[in-house]
Amino acid sequence: MFHVKHGEAPPTPPEAAAVFGPAIEAAEHYARILAGAGIERGLIGPGEVDRLWTRHVLNSAAIAELVDDGEAVVDVGSGAGLPGIPLALARPGARVILVEPLLRRSEFLTEIADELGLDITVVRGRAEDKDVRRAVGEIDAVTSRAVASLDKLTRWCAPLLREGGRMLAMKGERAADEVDEHRRAMASLGVEDVRVVKCGVSFLTPPATVVVGRRAVRTSRSRRPTRPSRSSS
After folding, report:
1. Which end of the chain is more exposed for a tag (fewer CB within 10 A), N or C?
2. Counted domains in the chain
3. Are 160 and 74 contacting, i.e. CB atoms less than 8 angstroms apart?
4. Does a structural domain hold residue 45?
5. What is the model's pTM?
């Protein structure tokens, strides 16, 4: 175990209390960790301190609007815990799993979870790894934030989703253009009904932009028929 260095975060915006509810103190603690160890370990740029709340913590928490209590959610390429940790704080009824390939980052996430008292799971590996897929199982939703283009992201994330499960990819201003560019590739990988959704409209300017897609539910016609076994004569 290593010491998580705390820094001085900007003042807590008033809207954060409504977003995090009883977890507001834990959210403030997390912001201080990002301002300290997050910068020291290269997970957050030094120039991001002034907008830690708006650009990172609240922006990530906004995705909780797309997650229900009781759902299992994987955060792929979690890094500093964004959006997974703010999601877990804002939606404590969800089961959150953080997937991160780098050892030092996965250790960092485990330490943060312990320090904040969060009941979340940290899995070291890449989303496309078979071991990760076995550890995670079939999930209700997969989140990501600035990880990769939508075609690559779909290739990695779709196998983690149950049928009807959702991809929730946090994107920037070009989200709609990226959807147009990769919609066909996403469909070929089994993700359909792709659309762009704005989250946190009531407390973020600009709001968070999320690309939402659903893993197709295979009908009985699309399932491969089972070959009858040959009986020995």
Report:
1. C
2. 1
3. yes
4. yes
5. 0.90
Residues in the chain: 233
Residue 228 counted as domain residue? no
Residue 225: partners with Cβ closer than 8 Å, 6 or more residues away: none
pLDDT band at 2 (very low <50, low <70, confident <90, very high): very low
In the sheet that holds 72-76, the strands lie side by side as 121-124, 95-100, 72-76, 139-145, 161-171, 208-215, 191-199
Binding site members: 77, 82, 127-128, 145
Kindly state whether residue 135 falls inside one of the protein's structural domains.
yes
What's residue 232's pLDDT?
42
* 222 falls within a domain: no
**What is the spatial distance between Cα 54 and Cα 115, in angstroms, rounded to a whole number?**
23
Residues 6+ apart with CB under 8 A from 224: none
CATH code of 69's domain: 3.40.50.150
CA distance 97 to 100: 10
Residue with tokens 């996965």: 106
Residue 12: alpha-carbon gap to chain centroid? 23
Binding-site annotation: residue ranges for S-adenosyl-L-methionine: 77, 82, 127-128, 145
Q: Where are the alpha helices (DSSP H) in 119-161?
A: 130-136, 150-157
